[in-house]
Amino acid sequence: MSAQPVEIQIFGRSLKINCPLEKQEALEKAKEDLEQRLQDLRERTKVTNTEQLVFIVGLNLCAELTQEKVKTDEEERKKCDYIAKMEFRITELQKVIDRALPK
């Protein structure tokens, strides 16, 4: 998994990024997403300062990531609770079966 330098253009700026060959497609999609977000924000807010746009989009992305992490953690907690309940029920059912079967 050796990284190759890849040149990408974002908002008229050229960046060279080392990226493994198998992740270059994902990098391209990320670049397109970033450009779209920057363009949408520029049109919505009329902010023209690229640095400001980048910081705002970065903060928005971090907020989205945080929300997804919270959501994922909550889903994981629910799954763990469900598993614990099922294990308890199985144990209780096993006890009932053991009592019902002749020894």
TrEMBL record:
GO terms for biological process: division septum assembly; FtsZ-dependent cytokinesis; septin ring assembly. One of its GO terms (cellular component) is cytosol. It holds the Pfam family ZapA. Residues 24-51 form a coiled coil. Keywords: Cell cycle, Cell division, Coiled coil, Cytoplasm, Septation. Its main location: cytoplasm. It is found in: Cytoplasm. Activator of cell division through the inhibition of FtsZ GTPase activity, therefore promoting FtsZ assembly into bundles of protofilaments necessary for the formation of the division Z ring. It is recruited early at mid-cell but it is not essential for cell division. Homodimer. Interacts with FtsZ. Belongs to the ZapA family. Type 1 subfamily. This is Cell division protein ZapA. It comes from Candidatus Fukatsuia symbiotica.
